[in-house]
Automatic annotation (TrEMBL):
Gene3D superfamilies: P-loop containing nucleotide triphosphate hydrolases. Signal peptide: none annotated. It comes from the Bacteria. Residues 4-252 form the ABC transporter domain. This is ABC transporter domain-containing protein.
Amino acid sequence: MTLLQVQGLVKEFSTPGALGRKSTFTAVDDVSFDVGLGETLAIVGESGSGKSTTARIAARLLEPTRGTVVFDGQDVTRARGKDLARFRNDVQVVFQDPFSSLNPRYTVERIITAPLAYQGIKPAAGYRAAAQELMERVGLNPDHCRRYPAQFSGGQAQRIGIARALAVNPRLVICDEAVSALDVSIQAQVLELLMRLQAESGFSYIFIAHDLAVVRQICHRVAVMNQGRIVELGTREQVFGDPQDDYTRTLLAAVPRINPEWDAKRRQRKVAS
């Protein structure tokens, strides 16, 4: 079953030009994809490819210039008021830099339960108990709920961001470069956490990344973006095992020994040519 469907997304930005004239830059150009229940769709590409802009439109953090966003059969492209609040209860975002997305003046308890307060949800056992339960779920010490973000490491801060996203039991979590700011060992721990949480709760992911090794570990399908367009879309096995687009091949070639089978096929193609 399809949970999210985006169709024909276009996002244009106006930039100052010479003599006071404005020019238009197209960051996302006719992008379409869908995400199934319990599925992880990875959107990959180099910096500036439009992948994060696409994700923010899908989360309704940016308005599209054209195109539609349909969630669970409902067109939410121009949703407002209660409809938008309901959508944001179902779709949460984990951002790239955990510290910049966590208010340094708020305790972890307040940060994690902010989505509950926004939705007007009052947990039966209270906000502190809810925060502690979520902290335990993501592998943090619940006794530290009164601490501030600066008192945590980068990996722990990202776990706080994940706990905040899970507070309202979302159906779709968008991870916008959620592990790119972490070192390799911490990346592995956070990825394992994300996969475990998905197995437990059955929600879907859109996973934005430029690291193809990370994408191969976590995703079911891959959309490759280049210059605002999706140039390849397929299952993990299709994209990594037999890429069809030259840009995809270039990205894969930049990751050493990411897939021995693909490397063997690439060598065979070179010999044949």
